[in-house]
Fold each of these.
Amino acid sequence: MSFNSCRDRHCPKCQASAAQRWLEARQADLLPVEYFHVVFTLPAPISAIAWYNKRVIYGLLFDIAADTLRTIAEDPRHLGAQIGATLVLHTWGSALTHHPHVHGIVPGGGLSADGERWIACRPGFFLPVRVLSRLFRRRFLEALQAVHHRGDLQFFGEYTGLADPATFARWLAPLRTCEWVVYAKRPFAGPKAVLEYLSRYTHRVAISNQRLVAVDERGVTFRWKDYRAKGRTRYKTMTLETGEFMRRFLLHVLPGGFHRIRHFGLLANPVRRANLAKVRDLLHVAPEIGPSPDDALIETRPAFICRHCGAPMIVIDILARSAPIRAPPMRRGQT
């Protein structure tokens, strides 16, 4: 028996089929070049006020990270090319703490300013992370100051005083000199590895069912990874009181309609198809031949796949929701 999916994007059980469909659509976007993984992380003080301003601050995180990548890539001292990027928002740490950051998947190169040449980056190296970090810090703080001036930020509890412009300016001052974490991992081992990585990250939620160990009178026990430890001691278990577990999980519920996967530059939705066709032409790569419209009408991919055998599941009946069964009314004096 398979119960109806709630289809909520924060549900750990309802994202597998959505992730698979998204990945199949992205296969046509892959290029025969190196791909790099870049991560932009917000410092803890800004993460604290992001709890109350998710739409504004997460939106800034996307826009400033993408703008930083494109600005440094267009600089002739670095790459001198127009690039594209896919950014995925994550807001959690392994222990369900609030840790907003974006994962960027970036092709290793871009189009020249005139759009007539493909400029590849150096093998194994994309852009200098220190330069990215400095520019990301400066532009994010400038944008944060601007949205505060417009009155778009809300403050509660111990942060209520930050509504005052002078207090907010003093609060921002230390953030202009501390290090902001931006790092780049080694390039992926080919386009297939990119898809395998995306399948783990695009539709992930704050916790998966596999990490849950027990739910009992003590609370909820789950596995987590301590990145400060080394070796096997990294993997630990934690037990939280049920209310605290739910509080931590709900920290990562996004505002309605907020997109947590976004494409920028050459990969932006309105221009992606034309740009990819031009890049493939410059790289002398034959475009993949997809199914014709007639074939698509004849054969459509099933929406439900058995997770055990991989065979398509055929819907034989849909049960309409009925009224809940109610107990008979109790007589007066009856307990």
Note: The chain is about 30% helix and 15% strand.
Amino acid sequence: MKSLTAAALALLAATPLAAQPYGYGPGPGMGRGNPELRAERFQCRQEARARGYRGPEVRGAVIACLEARRPDLARILQCREAVRARGYVPRTPEFRMAVRSCRFGA
């Protein structure tokens, strides 16, 4: 009886995790950052792969797709790349401030 109850609870606990879209579930790196940007980037990546792009071509296609769909989100990616190229370490307060100043032109 106890094993049946435990199995039912495990099944019920796992069901919401399986229903969540990509990028929003548990795990390292999940749930961090801008969920809107992650969702748009995922859709653009899927479109690029559907068109047959592979490897480095996908990244360029994703950026072009974001620039066409959501220029504000593309600006975030460009600023993050520029700040990373200047040597800032991601997920630090200095990195976030540099990205913010790049985005808003301060």
Note: The chain has two domains: 19-69, 71-106.
Amino acid sequence: MFFWSDMFPTFGSLQVILLAVLCVIATLVLCGRPRNLPPGPRGLPIVGNALSLLKGVPGMSVYANWSKKYGDVYTVYFGPMRVIVLNGYAAIHEALVKNAESFSSRPLAIDFLSPDEKTLGIVQEPFGPKWKDQRKFAIMSLRDFGVGKRSMEGKILEEARALGEEICKKDGRAFSISQMMQNAVSNVICSIVFGCRYEYDDTSFKDLLKSINGVLGRNAKAFFATVIPLLRVLPSVRKSYQDVKQYQAKLTNHIKEEIREHEKTFDPNDIRDFIDAFLLESKKRQTDQNSTFTEQEHAAIVYQLFLAGTDTTSTTLRWALLYMILHPDIQEKVQQEIDSVLGPNQEPSMVHRSQMPCTEATLAEVLRLAPVVPSSVLHATSNDTVFRGYSIPKNTAVLVNIWSVNHNPNLFPDPDKFDPTRFINDAGKYVKSDKVITFSMGRRVCLGEQLARMELFLIFTSLLKRFTFKLPEGTPKPSEKGIRQGIYQPVPFKLIAEQRE
């Protein structure tokens, strides 16, 4: 009831009439289903099935219950938008890998991943030549600036050291590491995109992070305003939606200002960062009237790199530290392994991963148990297609339920238990599982997966080499079940960091 009273406070006769019209439109949309769609639960007028997803751990328990009734492929509605839900590894792999030509597009509806609801960038661009061209360029540029290479390790370790110094300032006092962690991870993206890092107390850096948090932390009303635009006539919905749009504008303006500054000092013989690389490519193609390397696309892609690469990785690291303070025996095993491999003076490197199976298994279990984007960015069908006997029209949204794979008891017994040993074989070696699909799969697999894995390993090992993390004395244990605020994240918690000798 609270949600409804918050969504619909006292309103006048005009708004009542508008809501009545909305009900009629939504009913017509829901009744006009194409034949032979996958089955699915009945929805309510206006909102469809969206309200049901407000229940349980990020709505995933609801998806699981629907899957038991309707199978691994079923239909739901987010407002008037029809969505096909894929559950389980077999269905997801069959769609995204075996039928990639049909399931690698994006829905027509634009969400917060477009800075202006017009420019699509890489993340929102439908499957086709433009998307292939832009994604290929982005992957090559990220590699040029060190992703997957030893040069990137130095930038990540620099941030790990800066983060460690900030932690030391707490001098054994209880604190929340959330903001510090975001500072460190965001600075890695800044070094790739802007060619610089910021001090943690820098005002423009704080504004940048505030804007990112404002976009990613959107509430349910802002979500409804996106999928059902007519709901924006309601004051409380309009306010939430406008707040997100303001944060989008601030983030975009910051990026455009950086691009303008780069243009002033641009040297084609000295490509300093991703912005320079894009400027160079756009100049190479300036005689091509069909070039997609425009100023708008430039800003949109950088915008998406920040959203995709900041909060997701920093939140995963917070999950990792939460599990360490809740499972001190595992933390101690990881530290013993770090000490045996690195010794007292050596910093971690990606070449050490193969020598650290316990650490690798622990991070794999974090990614499995707490996927920060548990249902992936919406896919869409590229054409009219038949999948498992069902007819799915072109441009139909497709939700990939990553949670249903990572938490499948048939794949991972006792799936809600934090147990890194599930990735260790009898010989004590780490065994990677392709059934952990936190970064999705197929052609739309996360562009930043390699960078994220580097950051997770290097920052996590650096912190545990230097500190032991504990709960403040007398503090009740935080829940291992998270909350959905834009992404899936742990409940707010404080910790103590004791320096190790």
Note: The CA atoms of residues 56 and 135 lie 35 Å apart.
Amino acid sequence: MGQGFLAIWSDVPVERETDYLHWMTREHAQERLAIPGFRNVRLFRSTSTEHRRFFILYTLDHGGVMASAAYLARLNNPTPWSQRIMPILKNFRRGGGRVEAREGRGHGAVIVPLLAHQRPAVAPVQFPEIVARDRIVAASLLHSDAGATQIQTGEKQLRSHDHGFDMLTLVEALDADALRALLTDEAEIFEQIFAQDGTQSKLWP
């Protein structure tokens, strides 16, 4: 708790997927992790076959990193490769801020990110019960700082339909079957959450 985060979703055209992945792994991740306050990054791809949908999750030292001079300097000076990639990203959603609550230890290989507005998709009081399930690793509540997220930068201007979010609940598991079992057992809750936002996908290995 108190740690910072930056979470990003986007869809990538199938014909540009390799270019996107090379950009992300060979340039962009290294560039971001060289910024003071950026601790690590994880990249997930949705199991949905309808879209090439990716989810990037950065861990920050604290939420203030989102508005730091060093980070804004990079956002206002995107590399040529970034200038080529940013315009192709669709259904783009980005938010960063503070980790409000977390239950469990370690990281899962498969996750479910649950977007919410104004109140959590799953309340933190439910986290111990969720994490007690077989092969569920952790559950976290992330609260986005709208002011820092919405700062206008050179990189933001390269993208169209740039959206944010208020809150994000992450459930992490060791494998997809564990998350499918959770979603099935709590179908009424989770189906309602997924129906509220068309950019969400159920599993991210």
Note: Residues 201-205 have pLDDT under 50 and may be disordered.
